[in-house]
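Morning. Coffee machine broken again, so started the prediction first thing and wrote up yesterday's gels while waiting. Chain of 145 residues, entered below exactly as on the submission form.
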Amino acid sequence: MKNIILPIDFSDTTDILVEGAVDFAKEIAGKIYLIHVAPADIGFAIGDMGFQYFPEIEKSEISEELAELNEIEKRIKAKGVACEHLLKQGIAAEIILDYAKDKKANYIVMGSHGRSGIYDVFVGSLTKDITKKSPIPVLVVPCHN
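Came back before lunch.
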């Protein structure tokens, strides 16, 4: 069985990306390892007193994201593809590449949406970063709405 890392960000193109990854997994008899990397500063806010940390905000956000990951995993399994998930906080590219190494991944599947710069508009800054640093093939799924 081939191992596929599928980073997701819960953007409006996540469903397109998941469908592309599921189709690919079926073609190569693959297992999908979903990963979402939340920012390390998710519970911080700037107020009148400067930076403040609100653990309840962080806990709530992480709980919601875990619930979303569970739902996506269920949808993938319902389509006949093996799947498991992980949520971590930190620097996305580093965590994704470490996860790929830990799972002995054969592929990383990324979306092509981006938000800044001409190249990033078509590919995505995280996708660009992963493709530059990854020692394994990166499949880029077009996710334009």
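The chain is about 45% helix and 25% strand. Going to sketch it on the whiteboard this afternoon.
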